Amino acid sequence: MSRALVTGASRGIGKAIAAALRDAGYEVVATARKPEALAPQDRIPGITYHALDLSDAGSIESLVRAAGPVDVLVSNAGQSQIGAVEELPVADVKRLFEANLFGALRLIQLFLPGMRQRRSGKVIAIASMAAVSPVPFLSSYSASKAALVALMRGLRYEVAPFGITVAVVAPFDIHTTIPLDIRYDSRSAYLPDIATVHEKRDKALAEAPGAELVGAEVISILRARRPGFFHPVGREAAMNAFLLRHLPAGAVERIIRRLFGLTRGAASP
Questions:
Q1: Nearest to 235 by CA among 176, 178, 194
Q2: Active-site pick, 122, 145, 157, 203
Q3: Of all residues in the chain, what percent carry a pLDDT higher than 90?
Q4: Is residue 266 in some structural domain?
Q5: Which terminal CB of the chain, N or C, has fewer other CB atoms within 10 Å?
Q6: What is d(CA 163, CA 219) in angstroms, rounded to the nearest whole number?
């Protein structure tokens, strides 16, 4: 039986991926920051849980030792952050990158030698459509996911000779519970626009399709003989990805401004 490890599997997208892998016949190892705090109803039967804090190198190394060899690594754990670029504390942005990029990088580095020696393995990162179309006031989150996508694309080329597959899943409008680090207050010069984006973000996530779509996409990648690299998933995700590739930059900017209600002082195309 093939073994898969899914990070950030206590809820939301990670939990849906772990459930899909179990149902597909994988032996699943799942991580959570505090698995001992998970209520029985939040645990998926047949799945082993381990603690993982991606900002702690010791926690990452302990997980790798406890998990043992894996055939599939799904890097899902992460955080989001909202605030104006001008006002974001650099230390907070660094912590975001620790969770969304550097922790994932270290985990991949520790599992790759075994995959390379076995000349097989699959590494899948859960990014976001925000990586290719940054969301205003979620700019730091978008930047961390864009960096993750670039890292994974380069990795795909590097490990292909060893029989290792690398892919990225980019959710768009998926109902999830990703932690949101709020970095603005009533004194912000950007308050009206940030509040509008925050409200529209929360409403879109609440009304979005379930995270099971992401789990199904991961299984589709694993079953494909030659899976592609970038996999948008969610409500009209494929269409949005197509438009981003083909529309002029000015048109994309106008659409994003309208989508998030940013009409004050709109820039010229």
A1: 176
A2: 145
A3: 76
A4: no
A5: N
A6: 18
